[in-house]
Amino acid sequence: MTAGDDYEVLLAVIDHGSLTAAARSLGRSLQAVSRSLASIEQQLNVSLFTRTTRRVYPTAACLAFASRIRPALREIHSARDELIEQNVQLRGAIRIAAPSSFGVQYVVPSVTAFMGIHAGVSAELLFSEKHVDLAGEGIDLAVRLGSLPDSNLRARRVTEFRRVLFAAPEYLAARGHLTDPSDLAKHECILRKDPLREVWDFGADGRSVEVHGRLRANDADACNMAAAAGHGIARAPLWQVRSLVDSGAVEVVLAEFEPKPVPVHLVWVAGRSLPRRVRALIDFLAERIAAQDL
């Protein structure tokens, strides 16, 4: 038995008021508890307790000593637990929800990389543009884009992404370049909502412009590809069209008037004790997503 074990016995006797109760709480024999106290008293050459037939009472010196060693023992326990956890392989299933397009592009590569590191972990990915009920659906972790409403969820803000306007170089050459959002009145805009009009916001000051267009689609990829084909100006998160921008298929326009960036969060149910595998995945996803140029 180490000195730390003896000191745990000392604190247990103080907390429980008797050797018998301390022995019971520690799962040790009464004789072992008595030996630990005797060992400490012999080492320190001090009397730790006054005894009656039913209880033991700590001396002033004992209480002062205990107040010093109690925080140290907590640190020892914490360090020991962390070391043990590091040597235990992560195991078990994790259910993750994410928006479809963002999830396929950024969550899937990160989750599969995590599984490659931790062979005992399995994952189920659920993609939807709607916010699912994490507690009701038994989901451990979700990726959310945009501002978060008040809820019973805990959140970790990971990064943010830009929203941009873009068009094919051929379209801009034929119809003219834009210098101000009001120029959109002279252009075809590819819409995602109302078939006749749509309002696009610009800048940190909350400015907005009503735009019009003859082409409308309820699918982001369809709108983005139509813009790349030269049919008008579209709006999308930059991460959605990064490859089109980098290849020169489209050009970003009115960049100086971009609206505020959109936050990206990882969320989970508050008050629930997270398994170590989920905590590890949160850290892994946060680092990987934050490293992306969104």
Mind explaining what this structure looks like?
The longest helix has 27 residues, at 60-86. The protein folds into 3 domains: 3-86, Winged helix-like DNA-binding domain superfamily/Winged helix DNA-binding domain (Arc Repressor Mutant, subunit A); 92-161 and 262-290, D-Maltodextrin-Binding Protein, domain 2, CATH 3.40.190.10; 163-257, D-Maltodextrin-Binding Protein, domain 2. It is an alpha+beta fold. It has helices at 3-16, 19-26, 30-44, 60-86, 100-117, 134-137, 169-175, 220-228, 238-247, 276-290, and strands spanning 49-51, 56-58, 92-98, 121-127, 141-145, 153-161, 163-167, 198-202, 207-211, 234-237, 251-253, 262-269.
**Tally of separate helices:** 10
- Biggest beta sheet summary: 5 strands, mixed
Could you tell me the strand content as a percent range? Answer: 15-25%
The helicity comes to 40-55%
Extended strand count: 12
Protein name: DNA-binding transcriptional regulator, LysR family
GO molecular function: DNA-binding transcription factor activity; sequence-specific DNA binding
Keywords: DNA-binding, Transcription, Transcription regulation
Family: Belongs to the LysR transcriptional regulatory family.
Describe the secondary structure blueprint for this structure.
Blueprint: H1 3-16, H2 19-26, H3 30-44, E1 49-51, E2 56-58, H4 60-86, E3 92-98, H5 100-117, E4 121-127, H6 134-137, E5 141-145, E6 153-161, E7 163-167, H7 169-175, E8 198-202, E9 207-211, H8 220-228, E10 234-237, H9 238-247, E11 251-253, E12 262-269, H10 276-290
Parallel strand pairs: 3-4, 3-5
Antiparallel strand pairs: 1-2, 5-12, 6-12, 7-10, 7-11, 8-9
